[in-house]
Give the backbone structure.
Amino acid sequence: MKTCLIVDDSRVVRKVAARIVRDLRFDVMEAGDGAQAMRMCREKMPDAVLLDWNMPVMNGLDFLRSLRREEGGARPLVVFCSIENDAEHINEALRCGADEFIMKPFDADILESKFAEVGLV
Amino acid sequence: MQEEVFNELADLALKSSGQAIPKSKSYLIEARLAPIARREGFGSMADLVHCLKSRANPIFAAEIAAALVSKDTWFFRDRDCLQRVVEDVLPKRLKASNTGRLKVWCAGGSTGQEAYSLAILLEDEMPPALRGAKIELLSTDICKVVTEKARIGRFGHYEVQRGLSIRRLIKHFTRLETGQWELSEDLRSRVSFRQHNLLESAHGLGKFDVVLCRNVLSGMAKPARKRVVESIAEQMMPGAMLLLGSGENLIGITDKLEPARDFRGGWVAAGTANAEASAA
């Protein structure tokens, strides 16, 4: 089974996203900030990362830059998930190595559609 | 919903658009008519039906009938099919027609995502064989409001995130201050929109090389399906193809069309499928 790391400082968002992602037949890991997510990736690189932008300790963008520099860090498909949904922010996320971008709020249809877009489902 | 009220509205849907709404789906009627009921100040569906029966207002009745039809659609719905239309069906049609012109009709195209998806594909992934061709895209829907929304080309937060990749979104759309996303003027100008009831003659729309009538027939009663499909068949140029949604077929509906040999879900004029296959 594929693994998906959900990185968001909101426990509610993680809970909602985890339920949807499990329904898509993923094993789910959760992290509350970028630094914790980085530690988890070093232990076991996930197949997918659903990544929030604004988080304490290490934000999503810094996490993504670090991830892509890690050994094996080019492999996970990263779907940004943020309320920062203007073209400038979206372009910045893509430049940093995001594969897709979800504009919050989202629902199961959107998440499945975006995962399908990058070949995760 | 009271049985009498359901029967009136289901009957209206059947007569006006061929929709067969079973009693088990009466919630669809309530959901689809709720905006009109709110706007008109009706406290219940029974009040709405009472108004329909007591006031002979064909415009209002037509609005109700159009609202009862499903509008569910999204960008790149069944992407493989759209991709094959662009990569395979259209180039073959262009080669066969020798006019340098192709006409595509999205019948029952709702808010335009299917036709716009084709326009986006033709812009981003134009096959060499289609370069220089004049490709006309028409999308029709029974509902005037929906047709107008499609023409404007503005889509909401949820609509642009169903089926559309983020790269295509930021390449072809602009975010408005309202939060909506507007398709580029260039792509909008490549699709025409017209209000059209598929139960009525489509002679005025002209003849087409490809007709997409996807996920439309499945909600219709059998006699309506026959009428719609035979009306579409009359608008197909020789060698043209009709594409239905996955799971939809015309077996037992009409003998005017038969399955295309080389395209699953494609239907061509009866007696031509073998000829097409051997010509290819």
Q: What stands out?
A: The CA atoms of residues 31 and 37 of chain A lie 5 Å apart. Chain A has a mean pLDDT of 96.
